[in-house]
Design goal:
The complex is a heterodimer of chains A (about 110) and B (about 120). Chain A has about 110 residues and is mainly β. Chain A has strands at about 5, 10-15, 20-25, 30-40, 40-50, 55, 65, 75-80, 85-95, 105, 110. In chain A, the strands form two sheets. In chain A, strands 2, 4, 5, 6, 9, 10 and 11 form a seven-stranded mixed β-sheet that branches. In chain A, strands 1-3-8-7 form a four-stranded antiparallel β-sheet, with no helix packed on it. The N and C termini of chain A lie far apart (about 35 Å). Chain B is an all-beta fold and about 120 residues long. In chain B, about 0% of the residues lie in helices and about 50% in strands. Chain B has no helices and twelve strands. In chain B, a hairpin with a 5-residue loop joins strand 5 (about 30-40) and strand 6 (about 45-50). Chain B is globular and about 45 Å long. The chains are: A mainly beta (about 110), B mainly beta (about 120).
Chain lengths: ~110, ~120
């Protein structure tokens, strides 16, 4: 089944404790992206990647890191999480050709205490 | 500036009633237009898209949308709503060009369905 998977789905952590949220897609898509969703603010792009070893900032990159060592994986790293990073995070992937239709993972709900 | 406006934050309809969710956009280039749905606890799922051609497009779950260039609108419609349609609906616009190829997202419309 073609899909985007994220792990974990739910995470509670404390300020300053490094964490990684994994994202994997099995559709051989070139593009991958991380979004955060907050009430009243909609979806905001954190980082995106055009292909292996090619990443760039989105609209709200501060406090986040990403890497794209393999085409299928695009982990999101919070090296020192803060309470303002409490949010719902989505990973998405899409192909270079295909009109920009994005395929989303199920989301990761993060609470930083 | 590029933007997408969904004027209705929250809408409540009765089951079986018709539905129209509004979407207006501001975009310099010829846009690709999308509607996504987010059910509670789920990721976003594509309902329908418009790239070119017929301005009335059909999607999944009985939804349709009409692209009106003169009004910069892409409203979503359904003739008869089901209780399972209760969800958050997002309109998005892009043009599949450039490095990012990102979508510009509206803030969403939350749909509640009364039995």
């Amino acid at each position: 089944e073609a899909q985007v998977t994220q792990n974990p789905r739910y995470l509670i952590t404390v300020t300053g404790k490094k964490l990684t949220v994994t994202c994997s897609q099995n559709m051989n898509h070139e593009y991958m992206s991380w979004y955060r969703q907050d009430p009243g603010l909609g979806l905001r792009q954190i980082y995106y990647s055009m292909n292996v070893e090619v990443t760039d900032k989105g609209d709200v990159p501060e406090g986040y890191k990403v890497s794209r060592k393999e085409k299928r994986n695009f982990p999101l790293i919070l090296e020192s999480p803060s309470p303002n990073q409490t949010s719902l995070y989505f990973c998405a992937s899409w192909p270079l050709a295909g009109g920009g239709i994005q395929y989303f993972g199920p989301g990761t709900r993060l609470l930083v205490l | 500036a590029q933007s997408v406006t969904q004027p209705d934050i929250h809408i409540t309809v009765s089951e079986g009633a018709s539905l129209e969710l509004r979407c207006n956009y501001s975009y310099g280039a010829t846009p690709y237009l999308f509607w996504y749905v987010q059910s509670p606890g789920q990721g976003l799922q594509l309902l329908l898209k418009y790239f070119s051609g017929d301005t009335l497009v059909q999607g999944i779950k009985g939804f349709e949308a009409e692209f009106k260039r003169s009004q910069s609108s892409f409203n979503l419609r359904k003739p008869s709503v089901h209780w399972s349609d209760a969800a958050e609906y997002f309109c998005a616009v892009g043009n599949n060009a450039g490095n990012n190829r990102k979508l510009i997202w509206g803030l969403g419309t939350s749909l509640a369905v009364n039995p």
